[in-house]
Amino acid sequence: MRARVLVKPKAGILDPQGQAVQRALPALGFTGVTDVHVGRMIELDVQDPARLPEICERLLTNPLIEDYEIVSADPPAPTTASA
Amino acid sequence: MRARVLVKPKAGILDPQGQAVQRALPALGFTGVTDVHVGRMIELDVQDPARLPEICERLLTNPLIEDYEIVSADPPAPTTASA
Amino acid sequence: MPTVSPSDQRHRQLGLTDGEYALIVQQLGRHPRDTELAMLSLMWSEHCAYKHSRTTLRRLPTEGPAVLMGPGENAGVVDVGDGLGVAFKVESHNHPSAVEPFQGAATGVGGILRDIFAVGARPIAVLDSLRFGEPTSERSRYLLEQAVAGIAHYGNSVGVPTVGGEIYFEAAYEQNCLVNAMCLGLAPIGRLIRSAAAGPGNVLVLLGALTGRDGIGGASVLASAELGEGDAAKRPSVQIGDPFAEKKLLECSLELLESELLISLQDLGAAGLTSAASEMASGGGVGLDIDCDRVPLRELGLAPFEIMVSESQERMLCVVAPDRVAEVVAACERWETRATPIGEVTDSGRMRVRHAAELVADLPVSILVDDCPVYDLAPTEPVGVSLYPAPPATLAPDASAAETLLALLGSANLASRRLVYEQYDPIVQSRTVRRPDEADAAVLALPTGEALAVAIDGNGRRVACDPRAGAAEAVYECAANLTCVGATPLGLTNCLNFGNPEKPHVAWQLTEAVEGIAQACRALGVPVVGGNVSLYNEAPTDAIYPTPVIGMVGRLPDPARAGRLRFARAGDAIALVGPFAPTRAGSEVAKLSGHELAGPLPIMQTAAVRDAQDTVRTMVNAGALHNAHDIAEGGIGVALAECCVAGGIGARVALPAGLDPFAEALGQGFLVSGPDVALTGLAIIGRVGGDALELEGVLTVAVAELAAARDGGLARFL
Amino acid sequence: MKFGVIRFPGSCDEVDAQLACQRVGEAEILWHADRDLRGVDAVVVPGGFSYGDYLRAGAIARFAPVMVEVAEFARAGGLVLGICNGFQVLCEAGLLPGALLDNANLRFVFRQVSLVVVSSDSPFTRACEPDRPLSIPVKHMTGCYYAPPELLRGLQERDQVLLRYAPGHNPNGSLRDIAGVCNAARNVFGLMPHPEHAVDPLTGSIDGLAIFQSIRAAVADRLAV
Lengths: 83, 83, 718, 225
Ligand SMILES: Nc1ncnc2c1ncn2[C@@H]1O[C@H](COP(=O)(O)OP(=O)(O)O)[C@@H](O)[C@H]1O
Ligand SMILES: [Mg+2]
Description:
Chain C has 718 residues and is an alpha+beta fold. The longest helix of chain C is centred in the first third of the chain and has 21 residues, at 138-158.
C-alpha cells in the first residue's frame, strides 16, 4: 500500500511556521486565509499497513507534540492540482 | 474551505530526509517499507479556494524542486488514526 | 574530413561556437558522439576551461617561501610551521544561487568544502562573501534571507565554523547576486594529496552519493551564459545539498588518507565525473576507462551522457591499488558511505567510457583538458561614458556631520551584520579565538600554539570607479585586517566576479583588476595560491560591478594577544597610523549623497602603508595595544564609532586639520589605542572615555545612539 | 574518572566535548554502532546534527545501538549529559521530559547567553556558585523547550529545571526561559547551551567548566562510597 502520514503540531503548541505563512500572505495580496498550520507529510510504500501506527508513533512523529493521520495514497489518487 | 496542501520533492530531486527515514526503519525492526519521501503539509482556511494554486506557487512551495497537491480537509474528515 | 553540418546546431545549444566545434571535429577526425559532445561542451565551457581568463591570470604572482601547493590543485596550501599546512580557496556559486538561493548557497559551501578535503585537509573554517541588490527590493531581501539560511544549513550541519564574511548591497547586483564561499583546512604536510591519477591497473573508485539528474546542463552551462529568457528551462536542474552525506564523506575521506589507502583524490564539482576524471588523468599523464553501468544511480534510465556530466553533490573520486579496494570499501561502510569501483587507470592517454558494453566515448585526455582554445581579451577603457547609473540620494544635502555619521552606520553596507552571523556557528571545533565583530579578522588557534588569521574583502563599487586601484585596495584592506589581529599574510585566494568578458569594457575591467591584484601582491610579498573566475554575471539589462573578492590567510605568534577592535579602557590614547589621505571618490558617503561613480581613488602609498602595517602588527604582537582597527568604508568617523560601539565606551578626538571624517582610503589607515607609553612616537588624535563620540568641532553623538543606528540598519529589512 | 562521548554520524561537537571533559578527567569517543560503553563513569551525548537532524532533531539517533546501553546506564543511575543535539536525542529517547521545537524565529541562532542556575542540587550543577550567572554560547535551530502544562508544573515542583536563560536572554522562545532540565532521578541532564564551548579563556568564557567539574565531583563521591 502507498500511504501518506500527515503530521501536524498538536493544538496549543506554538507553530511559528504556520504563523510565518499567515503573516506573509497579505503582503502578497492574498487575503481571507486564516488558521494556517504547517506540518510534515511522509509518503511511503508499506507491505503491512497494520504496522503503520507503530511506525508513526515510534519514529515518524513525536506524540508529545504532534498529531498524525494516515491516509491512503493508492489510486484513485486525490484530485491533483499540481503544477 | 479548509484545505490541505501536500508538498513533496519533485520526482528525481534528491530527498535526503526520505532516504534517512528509509535507512532507519530496518534497524527498528520495520521491514517492507520502501520509496519513502518526506514533504510538508500546510493546513489552512481559505475563503476563495480558486486562489489556492497561486498561493501554493508563490509562497507555499518552491516549484523548482517541489510538487504539490491540494486536498480538501472539510468534513467529512478523513478517518483519523491519531493517537 | 568531416565538416560541421549546418543543420546540426546541438553544439550551439551546448554552448560551443561553430569554430570550437570545427576544431573538435578536426582534432578527432570525426564528429563526436553524443556522450563525447556533452563531455567536450562542458570541459570547453568558460567555467572549466578558463578560456577568457587564463592568459590574464598568468599575471598573478604565485610563488613564495610558504607555498606548498599553488594554483592548479583543488586548493592552494601554505606552510604554517611544525609540519602543518593550511589549504584554502574561494569559489563562486552565483548563478545557482540566483535561481534557487537556499540550495545554491548551500551547495556552494558543500563544493568548496570538498575542494579542501580533496587535498587531504580537514576543513576548519568557512567564510562567505555576498552581494545583493538594495535591501529595499523584495527580491534582494529574499535572496539574502535564503542564501544566508542555505550557508548556515550546510556549514553548521557539517560542523565547520563560519567565522567571517562580508555583504554589500548595490543596485548593480539586483539581477545577479554574488555568492562566494571560502574554506580553510588544516593538514599534516605528509597527508596532503594531489589529484593526479597514477599507475595503470589501479582502480578508480567513486565515493559518496548516488548519481541523479542534478545540475545536468547546470553550473557549467549556466556559468557560461547570461541569465535571460531561458531561465525557466534551466531550472529543473537545481542541485540539492545533503550536508549529512558530506559530513560522512569528509570523515571517511580523511580516514582513508590517514590509512594511506589512496593514491589520488579529487572532488566532483562542475561537470561531475567528466571534469574530475579528466583532471585526474591529465595530471598524471595517464588514461582512464570508466564503466557507466557501475555508477550507482538514484533514478533509472540515465543516459551515459547524463551520468558523465551529472552534478550530483557529495561525491569524490579516488584512485586505489587493486589490493586495497576491499579495505576502502570497508572503511566507507563504517561511515555509511558508498564506495564503488567504476573504472581503472590505463596507459592509453585516453578517456574511454563504456555503457551497456558499448564504447560511448573514446577521447584523448588532451582534447578534454588542453585543447580548448584560449581567447585573447580585447580590453578597451570606456572613455566618457558612465557604465553605472548614479544611486538615488538618501542623505539630505544639508545633513549635519552627526546625521551623516548615523546614516552611514545605519546604511545597508555598514550596519551591523549580527542578524546574519548569528545564523552561523562560528565556534565549533574549539579553535575560534576571535569571533565575528570582535576583530577585523577571524583568528583560529593552531595546535602549534600559534594561530591563523583570515579575512575576505572586495568592494565592487570602488573597483567600478577604478578597476586597478580598487582591486589593489581589496588586497591592502585584507592585509590591513590581518594586521589588526597581529598576523603576517602567508597567501591569498581570489574570486573574480565579472560581466561578459567578450565586451571590451568588461575585458578592460578584468585585466586592470588582475593587474591591480598582482601589483598589490608583489608590493606586500603575498602570493596567490588559488582562486576561481566567474564571468557573464550579467542579466540583459544589468551588469554587476566588477567584483574581485580577496581571501587572505596569515599567521600570528600568540593567539592570546590577537588584536581586538573595541575601545577598552577610559583614558587610553588613540593614535592614527598610516599615510591616510582619503577622498570621497567611490565612498559610502558619496553613494548616500547620490553621486555618480567616479575615480580616481586615492593613490596607494605602498611603502608607507607597509611600514604602517609593520608598526601595528609589531605592537599588537607585543601586547602593547588595547585595540587596533583599520579605517575602511565610512572613513575615520565610522571607524571610531565602530570602536566605541564595540567597547560600549566613548572617545574624544581632534581630527588632523582638513581630514574629512567620512572620506575613504581603504587599507591605508589604522586606529590603535592603549596607554600613552605604548603609543610613543605615533600621532595621538584623542582619548578613549565618556559615553559619547566627540569629534572636536565636528560632531558629538552618544554611543547608545551610534549603537542603535548600527544595530537597526539591517533589522529594518530582515 | 572517565567520560565517554558518543559519536553518531553527523555529530559535530564530540571532539569539543571530549576536550572539555579532558580538562577534568579522561575522555574517550564511543561509536554509535557499538553496544559498549567501555566502562566509562559518565556519558556525554554531544551536539551536532546526528543523521542530519532529518525528520526531527534526535529522532533517528535515539535508535542507535549505543543508546540501548545509554538507557541501561541511566536506569542504573549513571550520569548522562546531553548537550544541544544530545538534549534532543535524550528527549526523543524518553530519558528526559519534554521536547524541543524549532526556534521561534525559525532561524539558527548562535549567541553568547547568560544563564541562571536555578538549582545547584544536582550532579551537574553542584559546583556552580549560587547567584552567579553563567556566560555560555548557544547555537542551534531546534532549541525551543516545550512541555505540556501538567508536565511543566511537575518539573518545577520537583526542581528539575536546572538552568534558565537570564531575563532577556532567551534565544529561542523556550517556555519559561528553560535552558536545561534533568530527569526525576536527577542523573540525566540535557541543556541547549554548549558548556564545552566555554572552558578555555582563549576561545571565550570558562563558565562551562563548572558543569564538567560538577560531574567529576559527583562521580568521585560515588566512587568513594
Ligand atoms: N582567479 C584565480 N586566481 C588564481 N588561481 C585561480 C583563479 N581562478 C582559478 N584558479 C585556479 O585554477 C584551478 C582550476 O579552478 P577550478 O576549475 O575552480 O577548480 P575546481 O575544479 O577544483 O573547482 C584551481 O587550481 C584554481 O585555484
Ligand atoms: Mg576541485
